[in-house]
What we know:
Blueprint: E1 3-7, H1 12-23, E2 27-31, H2 40-49, E3 54-56, H3 63-73, E4 77-80, H4 87-92, H5 94-114, E5 119-125, H6 148-166, E6 171-177, E7 179-181, H7 200-208, E8 215-218, E9 230-231, E10 233-235, H8 236-250, E11 257-262, E12 268-269, H9 270-281, E13 287-290, E14 299-300, H10 305-311, H11 319-332
Parallel strand pairs: 1-2, 1-4, 2-3, 4-5, 5-6, 6-11, 7-10, 8-13, 9-14
Antiparallel strand pairs: 9-12
Amino acid sequence: MKKVLVTGGAGYIGSHTVVALVEAGYEPIIVDNFYNASPKVIDRLELITKKKIKCYNVDCCDASKLDEVFKEVKPHAVIHFAGYKAVGESVSKPLMYYDNNLTSLLKVLECMVKYEVKNLVFSSSATVYGDPKSVPIYEDFPLHVTNPYGRTKLMIEEILTDFAKVNPDFRIALLRYFNPIGAHESHLIGEDPNGIPNNLVPYITQVCIGKLAKLRVFGNDYKTHDGTGVRDYIHVCDLALGHVLTLKRLDEVTDSLYIYNLGTGKGSSVLDVLHTMEKVVGHPIAHEIVARRPGDIDACYASPEKAFKELGFKAKYDLYDMCKSAWEFQENNPDGIK
């Protein structure tokens, strides 16, 4: 059984990927300092998988402790999720983001070199495309970022590209996610933000459950079918499976660097999501239209062609499924994962 070190494995996408790894016959081992996640996630992962999940409470920026983990685990591959992720916070605290996100990646790479761990899947983001020239977005589109969070993703992609050129025996995949939403069917894990949610769907579900008064829709004058921003929403379980398919692909290929979009290829607007959630919960959801946010773009959705052709990846959940699972997680965990 191949061991996969999952940094940030207690987080939203990481935890769902851990489940997918177990189901695919891998042995995931988590490294997480629980900055953005609850330690209770580990208990819930064990309930879902019926397996003991090894977890190290370690910050990836701590070189000596991370070295101890690699020395003990000797993983076959690494999936690197660990990093700060809030766009707004990155604007107000850029140095914190550059320090944490870049340092953690560099320390992981140093350990991989030292212990000859040759396969890496990196959690990148569609933010590296900025405001795309057209949609759908293909992997060879120009890259442009507008905030420190996105810039750390792009800088890490550049670091890994340089690293791959001089380490042809490594196999590295950059996965550019679009907008993950939804939750595992067990209702035990899902998106569990600290404080007021930054993302659309948990904000809506918290309005539905009464924790927030109403949804603010930022702008209705975009060049889209209903005037609100369009994004590519993908179920987190589909996204998790994409990581498993990528790991398998890295064991079969000969080049050192691969880049894939992980999305559905379909754009949904803010109001599409809102109205779908209204169907799920069975009543109108309080909302108001307010001014645009600086930096928001009209539309952003993926071309998933390359991921389908090379990985066999195809999202299976539709928007209703995504919203339904998100709401069921919120209903079953009104105060989050405690």
